[in-house]
Amino acid sequence: MKKNISKAILLLTLLAFIGTPVLKAQTKEQIEKALNEAYEKFKNLKEGKNADYIKELASVDPNIYGIAIVTTDGQVYTKGDLKSAVSIQSISKVFTMAKVIEENNPKFIMDKIGVDATGMRFNSIVAVEMQKGKEINPLVNPGAIASTSLIKGADSAAKWKSILQVHSDFAGRQLSLDMPVYISEAGDNLRNQAIAHLLYAYGRMYFDPVQSTDIYTKQCAISVNAKDLAVMAGTLANGGVNPVTKKVCVSSETVKYVLPVMATAGLYDDSGQWLYATGAPAKSGVGGGIIAVVPGKFGIAVISPPLTPAGNSAKAIQTIKYIIEQLGVNPYQITPKK
Ligand code: GLU
């Protein structure tokens, strides 16, 4: 009798642990199925147009279409083109922001840059002017160039080295610069130069504005494929520890403050629509990549260069939305306790 009672208690305890998961676990088969279905469904989607305000981006193959998922326990799932690389562009803003928080503290970003969405275009000069350089957000150009200027390092070369290193740590391999993209944008980035100088005038640029813009332009030209981006997103999903290499890239405390900014300002003017549909913190770049993070579960990345009018990869948006929906991993999807 006693034995039976203790058996029952053990069973109940076990059920309490495994019977009420926050979200049901995704099996290998479910992930592969969702990936394959998404690929088939969207591979022929002909929406959007390559960015062309950076000349080199206009000639990137618009047919590149790669998808990758990296789970927090280090499993890698891929589909489509994993070989082709594009420039990371604005997705880099996430990792530079993370580094600034890591080198200082979360309040530092609030004080020096701000975290509210500007509600304006990503390279808006009016946004800087209206706020006198305050509340400029690290995920759009003014706040991103200010973040770059805040990276520790004795000179421009040391700051760049540190930025490239943190990106490489997140990706789990040594990344490098797409030289033609860098040269193309560096020769033509007067608008970003103007933003940096205006911030400097307001005392909100923390290193030489010309050099800061140059480092920022380099960070945007880091070359990545879909798997690199997914490992980077997977590292965020795993609280700052790279799930493949196991390297601690930043602390989980830092990630806690990075994800909300991605959630509120990751997809330019469509950030609200995106969060409404997926619940997942994400960041896009004009090179055609999007990363999204399902905290504690996985990171996902898609590369496809043609962009919607808001500047986000058209195929990547559809693909990630579909996969998150199929796997039932929207973090706001709650199973009520009855
Ligand atoms: N390097 C690009 C710029 O500054 C990044 C823009 C983006 O991806 O949103 O214009």
Question: What does this 3D model show about the protein?
Answer:
This protein is of the alpha+beta class and 338 residues long. The chain has a single domain (45-327), classed as Beta-lactamase (3-Layer(aba) Sandwich). It is 49% helix and 9% strand. It has 15 helices and seven strands. A five-stranded antiparallel sheet has the order 2-1-7-6-5. A two-stranded antiparallel sheet has the order 3-4. The chain is globular. It starts with a helix and ends in an 11-residue tail after the last helix. The model is unreliable at 11-23 (pLDDT under 50). Bound molecules: glutamic acid (GLU). Residues 89-90, 122-123, 141, 185, 192, 220, 285-286, 311 line the site of glutamic acid (GLU).
User: What are the secondary-structure elements, in order, as H or E?
Assistant: HHHEEEHHHHHHHHEHHHEEEH
Q: Largest beta sheet, briefly?
A: 5 strands, antiparallel
Supply the number of structural domains.
Answer: 1
As for the CATH topology, it is: Beta-lactamase
Bound molecules: glutamic acid
Per CATH, the architecture is 3-Layer(aba) Sandwich
Which outline best applies? globular
The CATH class is Alpha Beta
